[in-house]
Amino acid sequence: MGLFSLCQSCFGYPLSIFFIVVNEFCERFSYYGMRALLILYFQRFLGWNDNLGTAIYHTFVALCYLTPILGALIADSWLGKFKTIVSLSIVYTIGQVVIAVSSINDLTDFNHDGTPNNISVHVALSMIGLVLIALGTGGIKPCVSAFGGDQFEEGQEKQRNRFFSIFYLAINAGSLLSTIITPMLRVQVCGIHSKQACYPLAFGVPAALMAVSLIVFVIGSGMYKKVQPQGNIMSKVARCIGFAIKNRISHRSKKFPKREHWLDWASEKYDERLISQIKMVTRVMFLYIPLPMFWALFDQQGIIEIQPDQMQTVNAILIVIMVPIVDAVVYPLIAKCGLNFTSLKKMTVGMFLASMAFVAAAIVQVDIDKTLPVFPKGNEVQIKVLNIGNNSMTVSFPGTTVTCDQMSQTNGFMTFNVDNLSINISSTGTPVTPVTHNFESGHRHTLLVWAPSNYQVVKDGLNQKPEKGRNGIRFVNAFGESFSVTMDGEVYNNVSGHNASEYLFFSSGVKSFTINSPEISQQCEKQFKTSYLEFGSAFTYVITRKSDGCPEPKIFEDISPNTVSMALQIPQYFLLTCGEVVFSITGLEFSYSQAPSNMKSVLQAGWLLTVAVGNIIVLIVAGAGQFSEQWAEYVLFAALLLVVCIIFAIMARFYTYVNPAEIEAQFDEDDKEDDLEKSNPYAKLDFVSQTQM
C-alpha cells in the first residue's frame, strides 16, 4: 500500500498533475506557435491585405475566448472534464493538421510555377482549421485547469494553489518557446516543385505538439480523479434563477416578508443545495463585472512596446522567472509578517501594479518624445535634397541655400510654408532651373536631382516613426533601366529610372535583397545585404551603376533608429509581469476554490469570458480616439486602471469567502439524516423520548 501511495503522489502532490501540466505546456506551445504565424501566412501566402488579415486574426482570438463556455457546459453537464478534454483535443489536433495542409503550396500548384492555382482551396482549408482550433483550444481551456484542481483532496489547498502557479508557468513556458521556434521554422525553405518559406513545417510542428499533448494526457488516465457530471446543471441553474426572479416580482407587495437573498424566492420549487450553489456562483460572477475593463486596458500593453523584436518575449521570460519567486518567496514572507493576504487582496494588488506599469511607460515615453523627429504639421512641408548625379548641385529655398556633392543628401529635412515655397536648382556654369511641383502640405518630400535641369519630387509617405519598431526601406533607381527588388519576402516591382519606390517595412536585423533586371549582366553580383536594421528607422537605398555596368547600393538615412535604452523599459515590464502573476494566477485559483463541485468548469469559463469581453471592448474602441501625445494616453490608461482597481477593492471588501466542499458536505449530512428518518420514522422519536426521560 505504501508503494502504491508513493506512485500516486510525489512530494505531497498527486502524480496525475504531472501529466496535466505537460499536457498544458504542449497545448500552449501548439496554440501560440500556430498563432505567431497567422498574420504572415494570411498576408504572404493567402495574399490578403493588412486589414482583412488583422480582422480575421482578431476574430479567431476572440472566438478562442468565447468557446470556453461551450466546453464548460459539455464538461459539467454531459461528458465530464476528462472525456471533454480528450474529445475536443482530437478536434483541436485535426484543426492543426488541416491548417498545416492548407499551407502546402504544391497542393494546388498544378503548373509548378510556385503559385497556387486555386487559392480558394487553401483559404477554405485554413478557415476550417481555425474554426476547429478555436473550438478545441477554447473548449478545453476551462476544463484542464479545473480538472487539475479536482486532483487534490480536501486539506490540500496549499498544494492546489501552487499547482495553479505551476500551471500558469507551463502556459508561459510553452508560449515563450513556440514564439521563438516556429518563426525560425517558417524561414526554412521547402517544397516539392518550388522552394518557398516552409509554412507546412512551421504549422506542422505545433500540430505534432498537440498530438503529443493528447497522448500524454491519455497516458495518465488511470491516475486521474474523475468527478462525474451531475446532469444538465446549467439548465437547472437557469430555471432556478428564472423562477426566483418571477416569484419575487409576483410577491413584491409589502405584506410578504423579505428574504435574506433574492435567490431564496426559489425555495418553493428548488432544493436548498442548488440554491446555495447558485449563490456561490453569482457572488463570484458579480465580482467579475469590472474585470473586462481591466483586461481591455491590460491588453493595451502591446502599445508600450517600443522595440518589439527585442521586447516581445520579455513578458513571457519575466513570468517564467517571477512565478516561482512570488510563490516560494514573496507570499511566504508576507504570511510571516502576519498579513492576511487573501485572494481578492492579491488581485487588487495585481491591478494596482498594472496601473503603475502604465505610469512607468508614460515616464519613458516623455524621454522618447525628446528624441523623436519633428514632422510637418498644418500648412508646413518638409524637404530634403538627394543628389543621385555625378556633379555638385546647388539648391536654393526661401531663406537658405544648400549645396549637395555627388551622391549625397542634405543634413536632414528642412521645414517650409507651402504657400510661399520657391525652389531653384543650379550647378557651376549652368542656368537656374525652377522646381515646379504641387507640394502636399503636412508631408515630407525628397527632391531627387541628377542634373541642373533634371529632378524628380517624391512624396515620402512617412508622417511618423515606423510602427511597432519596424524599419522603412525604399529604393531609388540611379541605375538607369527599370528593376525590381526582392527583400525578405517583399517585392518592389518595376522601380523606374530616376524614381523612388514606396517604403516597405521590416523587423530588425540584417536583410538580404536581390536586384532583378534583364539589363544586368549574368556576371554581376545581384544579391546584397542591408546594414543592421535597429528599431524605428527608415533608409533610402540608391542603386547606382558602377564603371563595369553592375549595380551598387548606396545607403542614406531618412529617420534615425530609436535611441532610448532598452533598460529604461524593464521597469514597466517588471511591474506589468508582477501584476499579471499576482492577478491571473490568483484569479484561476479563486474561481476554482469558490465554485461548487458541479460548476468548477463553468466558473473557470466565466473567468475566461471576462478576457473575451475585454478583447471585444478593445476591438470596438480601437481607433475611436487618438491622443496627440502618447504619454497622455498612458496616463489615461493608468488612471482608468486605478479606478477599476478601486471599484474592485470596494466590491471585494463585501465578499464573504466560502468553502464549497464544507457546505456540500453539510448538505450530504442533512440528506443522510432525512433518509434515515424516512426509513425509520420512529428513530428520532425514540431519541427524543430517551432524552426526556
TrEMBL record:
Which GO CC annotations does the UniProt entry carry?
Answer: apical plasma membrane
Report TM segments: 55-73, 85-104, 119-140, 161-181, 201-224, 280-298, 313-335, 347-366, 573-593, 605-628, 634-655
Query: What is this enzyme's catalytic activity, as reactions?
Result: L-tyrosylglycine(out) + H(+)(out) = L-tyrosylglycine(in) + H(+)(in); L-alanyl-L-leucyl-L-alanine(out) + H(+)(out) = L-alanyl-L-leucyl-L-alanine(in) + H(+)(in); glycylglycyl-L-proline(out) + H(+)(out) = glycylglycyl-L-proline(in) + H(+)(in); L-phenylalanyl-L-phenylalanine(out) + H(+)(out) = L-phenylalanyl-L-phenylalanine(in) + H(+)(in)
Could you list this entry's UniProt keywords, alphabetically sorted: Cell membrane, Glycoprotein, Membrane, Peptide transport, Protein transport, Symport, Transmembrane, Transmembrane helix, Transport
**Entry's Gene Ontology BP terms:** protein transport
The record's annotation in Pfam families points to:
PTR2
Q: Where in the cell is it found?
A: Apical cell membrane; Membrane
This entry's Gene Ontology molecular function terms read: oligopeptide transmembrane transporter activity; symporter activity
Which Gene3D superfamilies does the UniProt record give?
MFS general substrate transporter like domains
- InterPro entries recorded for this chain? MFS_trans_sf, Oligopep_transport, POT_fam, PTR2_symporter_CS
Topology in the lipid bilayer: Multi-pass membrane protein
Subunit comment? Interacts (via extracellular domain region) with trypsin.
Similarity comment: Belongs to the major facilitator superfamily. Proton-dependent oligopeptide transporter (POT/PTR) (TC 2.A.17) family.
What this chain does, per the record?
Electrogenic proton-coupled amino-acid transporter that transports oligopeptides of 2 to 4 amino acids with a preference for dipeptides. Transports neutral and monovalently charged peptides with a proton to peptide stoichiometry of 1:1 or 2:1. Primarily responsible for the absorption of dietary di- and tripeptides from the small intestinal lumen. Mediates transepithelial transport of muramyl and N-formylated bacterial dipeptides contributing to recognition of pathogenic bacteria by the mucosal immune system.
Name of the protein in its database record: Solute carrier family 15 member 1
This chain's source organism reads Capra hircus
